[in-house]
Amino acid sequence: MEIGSIYEIDPAKVPSKTGMPEKPFSLKEIEKYGKRNMVFTMSGRSAIALALRSLVQNRSGIVKKCLLPAYMCDTVFFPFQWEGWEIRFYHLNKNLEADEEELRRLVELERPGLLFIHAYYGVDTWKPMRSLLKTWKKEGICIMEDVTQSYYLESAGAEADYVVGSLRKWYPIPDGGFVAADESICRKGMVSADEFTQKRLGFLTEKWNYLHGEGKAEEKAGMKERFLRKNREMEEWLDCHEGAGKMSREALEMLAGIDEEACREQRKKNYCYLYKRIKNPPQFWPILPETDGAAPLYLAVYAREREELQRFLKSHDIYAPVLWPVGEANGSSLSKEEGYIYEHMLALPIDQRYGREEMERVAAVLEEYCFCKKDGKERKGAGQVTGIRVDANEEVGMGHIMRCMTIAKQLRKLGQKVLFFTADHYGGGLLEQAGMEYRCLGTSWKDMEGETDRLREELAGAGCGNLLVDSYYVTRNYFDKIRDLCKIIYIDDCFADVYPVDVVINYNAYHVRFPYEEAYRGKAKLLLGTEYVPLREEFQEEYRKKCQRIHELARKEAEEGEPLSRKKYEVLLSSGGGDVCDALYGILLGLEGEAVLRKTIFHVVVGRFHPNKEGLEELAAKNRNIILHDHVSNMAELMGRCDMAVSAAGTMLFELCAMRVPTVFFVCADNQQYDSEFFGREERMLFAGDIRKDREDCLERVLAGLKTLMEDRALRERMEEALGRVTDGCGAERISTQFAL
User: Fold this and answer.
1) In this predicted model, what pLDDT tens digit does every residue of 505-548 receive, in sequence order?
2) Would you give the end-to-end CA distance of the chain in angstroms?
């Protein structure tokens, strides 16, 4: 999901024009300014123009000269030019505060009719001089305050004669601004701009469909280009549209349905969370100090290398705007500190569209940017193209493609482009859903050597500098045919041969059984052991949530004085995407008639390639304690709600380690045969055997293991402690750093 940029509008929330009433209403956030009169306008520009007209009407003979801050959006200058005002600038320091001595001198020298002020980014940057505003008001100078960046700020607007702001910057509406004042507001000459409104509704709903609707990647790319182009056209139209436009009836209707308090609270949460996560890095830092209750338009930072940081964020679909470009009117008047503001300021999105998950993502990308920097220079490898060769189908299962996608996400954080190559389209849907670009080779996944000519063409055409390969069907000859094109990283679970590659990865604990060091000495770099387990970031966050639930349970038990009884356990069942041995059906069938089934809820993960999905559905239809999950978007969340698990060996065992879930496991593939030696030791997990060798015995041991876990709480607690020592969940990050050429 993209974060930032212009608001999208849900088509379902666009009111019908037919019979739509223009209901009078007010917004509480505008009421707090305490002004008697208020008018909704088409934009912030229109609000300023209307305020200037009203000021001239209410104060005959006023000197049409205004003192404006030099750091300001150039669109603010347009209404003053339209209405024939003379502009003079006062200066700001890097803390976005005016210098009192300079301002006093300018007021005395220029004798302006109007002083225009702006509280920046949710902080009252005028707080030290608000008492001075009262003095100047008594001397006949009008005060106009723009609250576009600090709409929710409690202290804003009280001393101002006119309060203006842009509402379309705060809410998903096609147009909208306002002017509030104790003096009468001149409505003469206000016009509607229906064409502007309808065009904005059109492309803002198109953005909604782009973000939330269906469609292929190339179709959506075209949609994005269209709505961005239309937005630029509409902003240019506003720049040239002299006068004061009315807010549309559609925007008024949509504003009436907005919960301002909820929006304000969400912004506050987002701001506070992100502020705490980013306040110390040397590459960027918040411009203003954190204040209680801040709910600004953006979280503003200074960045040492702003354009570089902005590009890095954009490569991860996070859009942080620059506020603002230097305008023609103020360009020659800037102080050194104002020049610094314009050159280094970047605005991080924190608006109410997003919650904790999105803010964590922004923070993680920013932290990754810091990680990619060394001594002020970008880490080697950013901007490269990395290919990943992997398959997913009924026989291979989903584990290979899932771990490769985890690594791909880390590579993208490092600023690299990632391109998947598959033999067929089986895994294409999963890749597209994850936002990954892929190309189908149209070859046999079992005949890797037969694809080398086609793969060479694709690698060369895409400019791939690296290729990650995850397949058991590779050969030495396969790698020989492509190794001249790029650096090759191979995930090797089995040590079937010594391959001509640059990096070898085996994150399994059993790697010690094989002579990697002796075989590859001087030939390839080795990434061996559980510190390289490529787990998705979601496991770290979900484990934190699980800990909170455990602590809450412990608190309640302490209050009760004894362990709390529970109605039912929840157990996760998984056997890989293919479940080639039909283990899940065998386990559930063996549980029929057992008391353990009646007191347990089984969450059964059914991969898209499961060979006996119909049989599982029949069992679930007969027993409501069996819940099938055929599309799990967040496996960590599902694991986090389970008390224990039954799983085939493989990468999922490491995921269960990360979530500290006591587990019974079994083997169903050759590459899993050594897992029993590691996970079966030190009370990490209970091993039920190899289901291929003795199916009935394995299934009986699964049932016995489940009963043991349910009856022995002390064992579960020892297991949880042992599982926590296996992996820290940062393996994908460690692997990704090896892809720099």
Assistant:
1) 999 888 888 999 999 988 999 999 888 888 887 786 777 677 66
2) 29
Question: Minimal CA–CA distance to 537: which of 716, 732, 350, 677?
Answer: 732
Q: At what angle do helices 399-413 and 651-658 cross, to 10 degrees?
A: 60
Length of the chain: 741
Of residues 568 and 42, more confidently modeled: 42
Distance, CA of 227 to CA of 548 (rounded, Å): 43
Q: Which has the closest alpha carbon to 92: 318, 287, 311?
A: 287
Q: Does 324 sit behind a cis peptide bond, omega within 30 degrees of 0 on the bond before it?
A: yes
Q: Give the Å distances, CA to CA, from 623 to 283, 503, 600, 605, 619.
A: 57, 49, 11, 16, 6
User: 122 by DSSP, 3-state: which?
Assistant: coil
Using CA atoms, how far apart are residues 121 and 323, in angstroms rounded to an integer? 11
The answer to whether 448 and 478 have CB atoms below 8 angstroms apart is: yes
Q: d(Cα 486, Cα 386) in Å, to the nearest integer?
A: 9
Q: What band does 169 get if pLDDT is binned at 50, 70 and 90?
A: very high
Is residue 245 within 8 Å of residue 82, measured between CB atoms? no
Strand 298-303, strand 345-349: pairing = antiparallel
Backbone phi and psi for residue 239, each to the nearest 5 degrees, phi listed first = -60, -30
What phi and psi, each to the nearest 5 degrees, are found at residue 27? -105, 135
d(CA 549, CA 570): 15
Task: From 551, 564, 555, 556, select the one nearest 713 (Cα to Cα).
Answer: 564
Pairwise CA distance, residues 421 & 398, whole Å = 15
Centre a 10 Å sphere on the Cβ of residue 349 and count the other Cβ atoms it contains: 23
d(CA 686, CA 581): 20
Q: Rounded to an integer, what distance in angstroms lies between the CA atom of residue 321 and that of residue 210?
A: 20
Sequence-distant (6+) residues with CB within 8 A of 525 are 502, 503, 504, 738
Gap between the Cα atoms of 648 and 679, Å rounded: 12
Q: What's the whole-number average pLDDT of the chain?
A: 88
User: Hey, which bits of 209-297 come out as E strands?
Assistant: 284-286
Task: Judge residue 48's burial from the number of C-beta atoms within 10 Å of its C-beta, 0-12 exposed, 13-18 middle, 19 or more buried.
Answer: buried
DSSP state of 8: P
Within 508-583, strands assigned E span: 525-528, 569-574
CA distance 687 to 665: 5
Decide if 123 contacts 296 (C-beta within 8 A): yes
Asked whether 71 and 92 are in contact (CB, 8 A), the reply is yes
Q: Is the pLDDT of residue 377 over 50?
A: no
User: Distance from CA of residue 151 to its chain's centroid?
Assistant: 25
Neighbours of 513 (CB within 10 A): 11
Q: How far is CA 347 from CA 303, 310, 338, 356, in A?
A: 10, 10, 16, 18
CA angle 398, 402, 407 (to 5 degrees): 155
In sequence order, the 6+-apart residues with CB closer than 8 A to the CB of 383 are 415, 416, 417
Of 56, 55, 288, 256, give the one whose Cα is nearest residue 167: 256
Over the range 547-568, which residues count as b (16 or more CB within 10 Å of their CB) and which as e?
eeeeeeeeeeeeeeeeeeeeee
Provide the pLDDT confidence category of residue 557 given band limits of 50, 70 and 90.
Answer: low
